[in-house]
């Protein structure tokens, strides 16, 4: 009888799961709503302001600024795939999610993370052409070519993420239906499986290793060549501008990849660390670039900073000009007869 129960249990698979982001603070989880809501509000506001600035200013419609806009849009989408649902879970205990919804969330989360990395590759290519081949920059980096590169980035993201999600959809989950994570992360879901998931682990690890090795190799090679070319530029002003722009992009790249690397190391090496700390580090890896990127580009990119200040002054101008809205010719009444 016991053997029959075990066989029946193994043949079933959960179709609904419970996302428990921070198991150690479940009783006071509503207190987590305020800091994470403020963080999400900051992400939406900062990224949206910079996207709007680039969109309305025609002088910022060059490939570099278009790619910055795409990167910030990917940041918005990455945070929006899981933060709203997580906040609802903190506030109203709405933590249930179907298997289909979980796989869909996993797909879009990894898709936008991958797209973020692909856009960084396009930005490196754009800066390489601009600094190493400036005379042909406008001929090469046309709007049509940029659209093709963006489409290639989307296709690459889908092709890398789809195998992981498809393999996850074929796994049976018969142990527990409680995902001790705030999002349907791949390994968090696989930990609930009751079959052989070695293929899932190999594919997931292979995709991560390939992207990190190839992407970092391409980025390091590109920026080394860019810096080498910039150092040979005679004009001090041009040399400084080139290095400043590259420095800005490198700060964003380091923020993205170091946070990912830290999360992977802690997940695989820190077995003694509590699940709450693991999840907090995962949260940092997912949201840190979304917070830092608009700040870096808003402060360090001179053109964006100047146009942003100009837009803010335009909004303030009507209120300061109101008392001065007098007629052009003012007639005074006669003072005497």
From TrEMBL:
TM annotation in the entry: 30-52, 64-83, 103-125, 145-168, 205-230, 242-260, 280-299
Primary localization class, coarse: membrane
Compartmental location: Cell membrane
Record keyword Secreted present: no
Coiled coil: none
InterPro entries for the chain: GPCR_Rhodpsn, GPCR_Rhodpsn_7TM, Olfact_rcpt, OR51/52/56-like
GO CC annotation: plasma membrane
An MF annotation (GO) of this entry: G protein-coupled receptor activity
Recorded topology in the membrane: Multi-pass membrane protein
SMART domains associated with the record: 7TM_GPCR_Srsx
Residue ranges occupied by any G-protein coupled receptors family 1 profile domain in the UniProt entry: 46-297
Keywords: Cell membrane, Disulfide bond, G-protein coupled receptor, Glycoprotein, Membrane, Olfaction, Receptor, Sensory transduction, Transducer, Transmembrane, Transmembrane helix
Similarity section: Belongs to the G-protein coupled receptor 1 family.
PANTHER family with a match to the protein in the record: OLFACTORY RECEPTOR, OLFACTORY RECEPTOR 56B1-RELATED
Protein name as catalogued: Olfactory receptor
Species, as recorded: Apteryx owenii (Little spotted kiwi)
């Amino acid at each position: 009888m016991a053997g029959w129960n075990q066989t029946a249990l193994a043949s079933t698979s959960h179709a609904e799961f419970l996302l428990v982001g921070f198991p150690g603070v479940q009783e006071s989880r509503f207190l987590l709503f305020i800091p994470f809501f403020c963080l999400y509000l900051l992400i939406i506001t900062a990224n949206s302001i910079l996207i709007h600035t680039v969109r309305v200013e025609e002088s910022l419609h060059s490939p570099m600024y278009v790619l910055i806009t795409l990167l910030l849009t990917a940041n918005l989408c990455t945070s929006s795939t899981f933060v709203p649902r997580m906040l609802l879970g903190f506030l109203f205990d709405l933590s249930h999610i179907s298997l289909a919804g979980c796989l869909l969330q996993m797909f879009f989360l990894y898709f936008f993370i991958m797209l973020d990395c692909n856009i960084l590759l396009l930005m490196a290519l754009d800066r390489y052409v601009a600094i190493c081949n400036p005379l042909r920059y406008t001929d090469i980096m046309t709007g049509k070519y940029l659209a093709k590169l963006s489409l290639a980035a989307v296709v690459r993201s889908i092709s890398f993420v789809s195998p992981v999600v498809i393999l996850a959809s074929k796994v049976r989950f018969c142990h527990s239906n409680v995902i001790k994570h705030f999002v349907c992360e791949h390994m968090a879901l696989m930990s609930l499986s009751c079959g052989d998931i070695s293929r899932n682990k190999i594919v997931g690890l292979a995709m991560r290793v390939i992207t990190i090795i190839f992407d970092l190799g391409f980025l390091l090679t590109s920026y080394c060549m860019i810096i080498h070319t910039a150092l040979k530029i005679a004009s001090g002003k041009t040399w400084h501008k080139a290095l400043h722009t590259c420095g800005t992009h490198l700060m964003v790249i380091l923020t993205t990849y170091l946070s990912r690397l830290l999360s992977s190391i802690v997940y695989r090496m820190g077995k003694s660390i509590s699940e709450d700390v693991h999840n907090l580090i995962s949260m940092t890896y997912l949201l840190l670039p979304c917070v830092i990127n608009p700040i870096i580009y808003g402060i360090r990119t001179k053109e964006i900073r100047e146009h942003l200040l100009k837009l803010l002054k335009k909004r303030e101008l009507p209120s300061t000009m109101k008392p001065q809205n007098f007629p052009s010719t003012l007639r005074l009444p006669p003072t005497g007869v």
